[in-house]
Amino acid sequence: MNVEIEIYVRKLREFFNTDEQARSDMFSGYNVNLDEFFKVVKKQAEVNIGLHGDPTLTTNQMMDIMMMLTIGEQAIDDRANQNIEKVFKKLLDDMPPFCMN
User: Which domain holds residue 77?
Assistant: First the structure.
C-alpha cells in the first residue's frame, strides 16, 4: 500500500472525527457506515494516485461515494434520496452508480 494513501485516509478520518461541523455537514441525515466510506475512499485514492500522482479526492468524488453508499438507504429527510434514485442506477458492484440522465 502506498504510504501517501495511508496518510491521506488517516488524516481524512481524523478530520471527520475531530471536526463535528464537517462530520455533520457530510454525514448527517444518512446512515453511512464510516468504515465502508473510508474503504471506498481508499480505493478511489489508489485510482487517483495512479492517474494523477495525488491521492486527494475531489468534491465530486466524495459526493459520488456518498451517493453510492446511500442509494436505497432511508434518509432522515426522504426528499434527499428521491431525486438521486431517479437519476442514478447502480449497475455493477464495487462501482459508483451510473447517471441515467
Answer: 3-99
